[in-house]
Specification:
Elements: H1 11-36, H2 43-63, H3 72-96
Length: 98
């Protein structure tokens, strides 16, 4: 197929994979922040977010996505999507007292 990349993954599957990974990482980071941070002001909560963002790039390499080909826009997308899901999910967890 002409639209497939050298690694055999179409651009649609690549985008779907990256988006799914960012969503799962953001939600997982929210649960991690909820477990580790004693208060919402605790910097460990944000540290969990930073680790979740940084951990995605090796995972993408293992999945088969060449992270060297990611543009600045792609990297910012990964960071923003992870932050957004983390922020909303942790906010819900803090509000409900879970």
């Amino acid at each position: 197929m002409a639209t497939e990349t050298a690694d055999g993954m179409s651009s649609h599957m690549r985008g779907l994979t990256v988006t799914t990974l960012t969503a799962v990482a953001g939600i997982a980071a929210a649960f991690g922040s909820n477990a580790l941070a004693a208060t919402p002001n605790d910097p460990q909560g944000v540290l969990v977010l930073a680790v979740a963002i940084a951990a995605q790039f090796p995972i993408l390499r293992v999945i088969g996505i060449d992270t060297d080909d990611l543009s600045t826009k792609d990297v910012l997308y990964i960071g923003f999507m992870t932050f957004s899901l983390w922020f909303v999910s942790w906010g819900i967890l803090l509000t409900t007292g879970a």
